[in-house]
């Protein structure tokens, strides 16, 4: 039997055994947990804001595919981290929140920072539990990690009562490491889905966030070629498929390119892989019209949408795609050449339009976002990660092919909840999960400002992220919509001087005020990041600098209006 002098020593030993190398958070006044971490080899990112700690850990989990750990204190610490937990739940990120809790003997006695934290976190987590006895800690830790990763990944919450900090914790057996097991699909459901796929002549594949870390051998591209299917991704699915593939047509739903409208109008089957089919993924002309069947493949039945007709398969989408590719290899199905040509032409025409828009932007003396994105893409190594944000500026990088996630490049985006500030903070976690990759956060000045004092944390810990900050005066979507409704009135405008606030001295900063300065400043910033320094390239832009595709959006769409 092994025993630990306190709960946090047991926690650190468990994390070490599980291969956890990084923990994010801000602990309570009891520093026992820091003592335990100090004696181990786990890197602790000491945040100044628990909200950002949750965001960073979520970014780490999305990039790595493994459970990430966020460590917090009691009371308001749990309300601060709540938005990060919401984002993890909506993004299906395996996040484990370890929290301090009021001692058992003081519970109900108006103890300092006492709060029913389990009740607060339970609605947003896969499992929320309070450890009140030393004997319960070992199995609770194991269950927390298993639950976070099993099925559709998501956040869990584990609270450790303060009086366990110095209580002897027993472990009577080796730590269990139970890898998630995914049973094969129901045979009848799989056969029905395959029959629909086989019979389709004008199929569209939609790749969702559930395909992250499940397409390492490019089986999705192989399936698309075998079926002759046009390929779209959801915003969260970008990076799971190579957007340089000739049949890739960009993002579906809200951000679907105008050239793809005819494909969505004429498709006879939509096949979705690992997508919940949220509103932005199915909005408007960027998704199939009513009556077109939708085959859904998802790892958990609760992740399936009930808004569409068509067969469903509950299974690991990666394994299903592999099975379908094997079936195509021995079958005699020939893709429809006309449909293949139409799908391939969408990307070609979209690129031609974007190239023309970019050329016009580069001819401007003031910085334009289309030109900025083109310059950035030319400079990034193939294995980069673009972390995106929310707001008016996000339209550019979401609209394919102003930005293409090609080859081994990856993309991390906020979920359907679009928590402002997520991308700015998550970029730090992404960089720690992929230290050998260049990580760029494309953010607006409003979102960047929400990173606050944790920008200094990134600088102090030499987490070399490049922040490209599009400065349109703060919360550009809100201001642009108000301008349309009030004919330029300023009653609800922000009254502030342009530009970012003062940044930590350790952060490299450049302001790009002219178009001809973009290339040199990006080169300089990327060099600083390669040396482990945080770099911020601020680009003043106009509220009117938006993609032409934005004009196609319905102004009454709630998921856009609320951004």
Explain this structure to me?
The chain has 563 residues and is α/β, with parallel strands linked by helices. The chain is built from 19 helices and 20 strands. It has a six-stranded parallel beta sheet, sandwiched between helices. Strands 11-10-9-12-13-14 form a six-stranded parallel beta sheet. A six-stranded parallel beta sheet has the order 16-15-17-18-20-19, sandwiched between helices. Strand 15, helix 13 and strand 16 (410-412) form a beta-alpha-beta unit. Helix 12 crosses helix 18. The longest helix has 26 residues, at 337-362. The model is unreliable at 554-563 (pLDDT under 50).
Shape: globular
Number of helices: 19
Structural class: alpha/beta
Helix content, binned percent: 25-40%
Which blocks of ≥5 consecutive residues have pLDDT under 50?
A: 554-563
Distance between the termini: 54 Å
